[in-house]
Amino acid sequence: MSTLVGFDAWAALAGDSPTSRTEWAALVAAWSEPHRRYHDLAHLAAVLGVAGELATDAPDRDAVLLAAWYHDVVYDPQRSDNEEVSAARARAGLRGLVPDDRVEEVVRLVLLTATHDPEDDDANGAVLCDADLAVLAGPPDAYAVYASAVRAEYGHLSDEVFTAGRIAVLEQLLALPRLYRLPAVADWEPRARANLAAELSLLRSRASSDADRPLADG
């Protein structure tokens, strides 16, 4: 297990107490669920690592890192309210471990990951969203591994249904005026858009080929 998701890293944010230890263990168990192929402990560690590097100027660095811990703590590919349920899980899990105002900021930040579209003056939100989307700006081979893992998480869907849904997600991301908000990661933008556009082109081609395929008789 990466030290980024170890108890010491968690305790630096939420303290060392029996309640804190229980909550950390529950979080690790949730992120380790067997159906997760991308939204797993490795993703959590990656987001925590990037957020930690970017959060030097965030008004509440601890809130950003706590939000990273909770942002996909509930992840069920068959439901559409994962962010809302994860935010509620954060409110329940952090109560009594950190100040109430920080709890509410964590909740707000977790909800923000549903759109990845923070306001221009939302430094905490920019750090979390940029960290969560950092994978999009990786080298093409790393991006392909990410895309394959996402497909595996939706193994319950047919190729046709998944392709249509994934196309919609990619189009939504590409329609954002900016994928990243922090000047420090401005060079991620063209790489991420190139990766997204390449996947979108591939999926559109696949969808077109499927539509042109003749139906079998009988």
Would you kindly provide a brief summary of this structure?
The protein is built from ten helices and no strands. The chain has 218 residues and is mainly α.
Overview of this protein structure:
The protein has 218 residues and is an all-alpha fold. It has 2 domains: 1-132, no CATH class; 138-212. It contains 10 helices and no strands. It has helices spanning 7-14, 18-31, 41-54, 61-70, 82-94, 100-112, 123-132, 140-153, 159-175, 188-212. Helix 1 crosses helix 2 (18-31) and helix 3 crosses helix 7. The longest helix is centred in the C-terminal third of the chain and has 25 residues, at 188-212.
SSE topology:
Elements: H1 7-14, H2 18-31, H3 41-54, H4 61-70, H5 82-94, H6 100-112, H7 123-132, H8 140-153, H9 159-175, H10 188-212
Helix pairs in contact: 1-2, 3-4, 3-7, 4-6, 4-7, 5-6, 9-10
What is the number of helices?
10
Q: Outline the low-pLDDT stretches.
A: none
Give the CA-based shape. Answer: globular
The domain count comes to: 2
The percent range for strand residues is under 5%
Overall number of strands: 0
- Sheet bearing the most strands, described? none
- Our measurement of the CA-to-CA distance between the termini, rounded to an integer number of angstroms, reads 53 Å
Radius of gyration, Cα only, in angstroms?
18 Å
- Alpha-beta classification: mainly alpha
Mean pLDDT comes to 94
Helicity, as a percent range: 55-70%
